[in-house]
Amino acid sequence: MATVATVGMWHGLHARFVDALSLNWHDLVMFQFYRLFTGTFVQTRTVLDWTILLMLLTFVPPYEVLRGWRRTALIFFLGDAISSAGAVVLFRLLGALGNATALSWALEQDSGASSGCFAALGGLAVAAPRRWRPGAVLLGLGIHAFRLWFRGHEADYQHLAAWLVGIGLAFAVEQLWPPRIATDR
Predict the structure, then answer these.
(1) Residue 38 lies in a domain
(2) Using one digit for the tens of pLDDT, what is the confidence trace for 136-177?
(3) What's 181's DSSP letter?
(4) CA nearest 108: which of 52, 154, 159, 152?
(5) Domain count of the chain?
(6) 41 within domain boundaries
(7) 112: which DSSP letter?
(8) Residue 184 maps to a domain
(9) What are the Cα distances from residue 18, in Å, to 39, 89, 110, 111?
């Protein structure tokens, strides 16, 4: 919120933040991999996006309670980075095959914390008690099917990727680093 307030006070500062910290195809080709992580800290729009705050407060704290802050940070940031890079590369490949929309998505600046939130939602589906997991997965699939059907924007595809990456990372982390408190009740 402090970033949004600060950026709102100085016109033009937000555009500089987005240019310096966000990610697109050219940044990957130029090996500017730090942007995979810095883009999370600057939102695409200058206005306060309540949906991002709602997702941060809804998806991230329950996962942190179930699995701790280290796992949460790992899933959030790594899920955001992997899904962002994967989406940019996939959109660029589709653009090379003639899809002009995908090419424009690969070349536009991408930033924000929403993919990290969806990765945490994927982690939450894995960390949920066993009896709730099918419902959590169906809820996630329903959310993404709805968004893709009615919007079908670049962010919707990237959020689906982030959710799937979050599930995969959470499964891998659970195997490599078993939780102290089991949720298989």
Answers:
(1) no
(2) 899 889 989 998 999 888 889 999 999 999 999 999 999 998
(3) S
(4) 154
(5) 1
(6) no
(7) -
(8) no
(9) 8, 19, 8, 7
Is residue 134 in some structural domain? yes
Query: Residues in the chain, how many?
Result: 185
Query: What pTM did the predictor assign?
Result: 0.85
The residue to which tokens 């949460």 are assigned: 72
Tell me the residue range of the domain where 150 lies. Answer: 49-176
Residue 41's pLDDT is 86
| φ, ψ at 23 (rounded to 5°) | -125, 140
Complete DSSP assignment for 11-59? TTHHHHHHHHH-B-HHHHHTT-TTHHHHGGGS-SSSS--HHHHHHHHHH
Share of the chain above pLDDT 70, in %: 89
Per-residue pLDDT tens digits for 105-128: 999 988 888 899 999 999 999 998
Structure tokens at 19: 């240019």
At 65, the amino acid letter reads: V
* Residue in this structure with the two tokens 């589906």, named with its chain if needed: 125
